[in-house]
Amino acid sequence: MSVPLRQAIRVGSYVVKQHLLGRKRYPLVLMLEPLFRCNLACAGCGKIDYPAEILNKRISVQEALDAANECGAPVVSIAGGEPLLHKELPEIVDRLINEQKRSIYLCTNALLLEKKMDLYKPSPYFTWSVHLDGSKAEHDKSVCQEGVYEQAVEAIKKAKAAGFNVNINCTFFDGTDADRAASFFDDVMAMGVDGITVSPGYAYERAPDQQHFLNRKKTKDLFRAIFRKGNGGRRWQFSQSTMFLDFLAGNQAYHCTPWANPTRNVFGWQRPCYLLGEGYAKTFTELMETTDWDKYGVGNYEKCADCMVHSGFEGSAVKDTIRNPLKALKVVMKGIETEKPMVPDISLDKQRPAEYVFSSHVEKAMHEIHEEKDRLKQGRAAAE
Predict the structure, then answer these.
(1) CA-closest candidate to residue 196, choices 252, 156, 137, 154
(2) How far is CA 328 from the centre of its chain?
(3) What is the pLDDT of residue 16?
(4) CB contact burial 234-248 (16+ within 10 A = b; e otherwise)
(5) What pTM, to 2 d.p., does this model score?
(6) What's the CA gap between 102 and 315, in Å, rounded?
(7) Mean pLDDT for each consecutive 10-residue tract of the chain (384 residues)?
(8) Rounded CA separation 101/69 (Å)
(9) SS (H, E, C) the chain
(10) What is the predicted pLDDT for the residue at 214?
(11) Would you say 198 and 240 are in contact if contact means Cβ atoms under 8 Å apart?
């Protein structure tokens, strides 16, 4: 595992404190989406098909700082959309680091990274998280635009030369070849990146391409095949817990802990998680106290049946690591098991059927936007 030492100590101390306090649910990483607008149109993305009025909305600097304070998570992952399109993002990042001492992962497709790099400062609390979904052919296909891989690789090299921490984050979809994935991991390690964040693709209900998302069986088979080629995964540096990687290989049967990675975006605090938008809360406290968490997760809800994504299960893996350190150490030392039978998966027999309520949230947001426009127009008219 490759995580900056200061961050590892701070996060570890935070998690131990939560356990000593007996807290059942607590945040680990704040998923902050300051905008949905993007400069790419990836077929597997469920974030970019909003009306223009919503794509034009931005979280303000103060809203971002307040969200981090409300939540209290030691790590903030800034995603989108493409975050570098947000003009006030350098101030948000600077103040989250220097005023709140948060560890920041700034996710980007890297198309604007070289242009914007000078607006940010290297820091042990700051990491560029560059999106790469495989080698040149796989990545450019994934983002539906040629030349993106080469531009991202060049930006990674320049960011490393400038003294920044740089990770790559990759999402694997159905049809991913284990040999090519292992070769891709070798390639990014050779670039000098500090770590890899990996996750199986999850079926956003509004994504244009619904045919290439992995189910849980295919996810486990794929990651076993990849880790088998990398000495149980030890050939590469991952910026994730070893137990989460062990989970991807079918050796752990974790339940989802969506509150570990709460999402704050232009709508508010998203229920129940980064991937499912089934309502929004105005405050973090409201999110935690009024969300019926037992309604969601594998075995509880049809939409969650195939999910093994890091935003849902990394918190579960961290909790298991704290509770069972010797088990976790054994996996670190021996590598991820790829040959023994997989552990039984969670039964889906009692899951409730999917509800499709996303459009009502968009309609509500559009109504509020139009009401605000009308109020501003009436205010200008009265002033005249």
Answers:
(1) 156
(2) 23
(3) 86
(4) eebbbbbbbbbbbbb
(5) 0.90
(6) 17
(7) 70 87 93 92 70 90 98 95 96 97 96 97 95 88 88 96 96 89 94 94 57 79 95 91 96 95 95 89 96 95 91 93 92 94 94 81 74 76 73
(8) 11
(9) CCCCHHHHHHHHHHHHHHHHCCCCCCCCEEEECCCCCCCCCCCCCCCCCCCHHHHCCCCCHHHHHHHHHHHCCCEEEECCCCHHHCCCHHHHHHHHHHCCCCEEEEEECCCCHHHHHHHCCCCCCEEEEEECCCCHHHHHHHCCCCCHHHHHHHHHHHHHHCCCEEEEEEEECCCCCHHHHHHHHHHHHHCCCCEEEEEECCCCCCCCCCCCCCCHHHHHHHHHHHHHHCCCCCCCCECCCHHHHHHHCCCCCCCCCHHHCCEEECCEEEEECCCCEEEEECCHHHHHHHCCHHHCCCCCEHHHCCCCCHHHHHHHHHHHHHHCHHHHHHHHHHCCCCCCCCCCCCCCCCCECCCCCHHHHHHHHHHHHHHHHHHHHHHHHHHC
(10) 79
(11) yes
Q: How many residues does the chain have?
A: 384
Residue 195 corresponds to which amino acid? Answer: G
CA distance 202 to 307: 6
Distance CA 281, CA 175 (A): 37
